[in-house]
Amino acid sequence: MLHVAPTVGPDDGTSLAIVAMVRALTEQGITASVLAGMYPGVVLHPALPDNPALVHTVEMRRVFGDGIGSNIAWPRDFRLVLSKLAPTVDLVHVHGMWLYPTILGCPILRQIQKPYVISPHGSLMNGALRHGRLKKLVALALFERRNVESAKAVAVTSKPELDELRSIGFTTRALVVPLAVAPAALEFFSSGRSQEEFLARRIRTILCVSRFHSQKRLIELVGIFGELAADHREWRLRIAGPDSERGYRAKVISAATKSGFGDRIAVESALHGERLWRAYLDSDLFVLPSAFESFGLVLGEALASGMPAIATRGAPWPQLADGECGWWADTSVASLRVTIAEAMDTPPLQLFAMGKRGARIVSDHFSIAALGRRLGELYASIVD
Q1: Tell me: the pLDDT tens digits for 244-288?
Q2: Cβ atoms of 229 and 217 closer than 8 Å
């Protein structure tokens, strides 16, 4: 199998999903290779196979150099590389929408009659379509609808994503293939949380792991914490993640300072590996305040660590409420505030019990083994 993606970096959700898929397929005995773009200043995810026969890259050249429009890049030699690699595999799995893997890649795959699967990673959900809506609607009309409809299947990560795919008229075969928490993280968390240590904590921490982008509503989260902090003196807020919108991190820091509780709000750069997993274990409550998430893998990581989580109904995690391992709030900021206040008032013993239930849910439904089985069954139904 060949996975084609815009890039496979260390931070974004799509990249982490692809890394998990490659690992899951390898454990199922299925050879999985990757073709991805190398953007200026972006390194590939370190968990990708250290094998040049399995990881292929194309240089992403900035269209306008380092001046205006320097974020626009074009994949040098992509057509040539894909045309050489695709005939050597049974199936191609294309990731994302609106970029060269679908715009350039899908027509090539149709031309050489190579079957392909598409994972939109939430790109066709209403929350995502609202941003740059006109351009996306034009792209759908001109080529992206055909690219999706010509796929042998569409792999979505949740039932809400499937429902929204149908709501905009796509009838292509589609299957729900939830993502998985990295095995290394599960192993790190396996020692578990000590109930005695958890209950004895004098300082409680709300953790948010997210890209720094206005869509993620981090400034709103800081505002909510500022409103609640005076009545919850034992609580702190910790926000960590990569930059995704120019200047947004500075705005979050400014909001923290203006809240009057800047000494209890930490704004940090992206954490990786054991530093990230340790942050989960050191925290007491996870909050993802965004009004839209295609999946929200960080929620799975938080639950796997044994910590209850809060997300809005814009994230497809009904398990938070159904499994009594967190809160699934309405998308309004007012509702989010009420929910966070309720969580901060929840007794530590109850928080600990909720976290244990969440860890079991992840172990049962969001493991690498489960992901590998689902992908293997999907692929086999196409190529056998």
Answers
A1: 899 999 999 999 999 999 999 999 999 999 999 999 999 999 999
A2: no
